[in-house]
Amino acid sequence: MPVYEYKCKNCNERITVKQGIKDPHLVVCPHCGQESLERLISLSGFELKGSGWFGRSADHNPSASHCSCDNCPHKR
Q: Which letter does DSSP use for residue 76 in this model?
């Protein structure tokens, strides 16, 4: 179940809540009771590690002389 972060516009308190994706956004702050919560966009805890599919893109060939990546470490 996803974890969402909310911040109250009234008292500036932050809360973290486990909610289903289809659950309605919270609006009432549990600290001050005002209808002033806004859901924040936070960094995800999801991270890809290792040498899986994401590291072997079919269109990226570092040994090719025509590598088109702007910040490609193989151009240096």
A: -
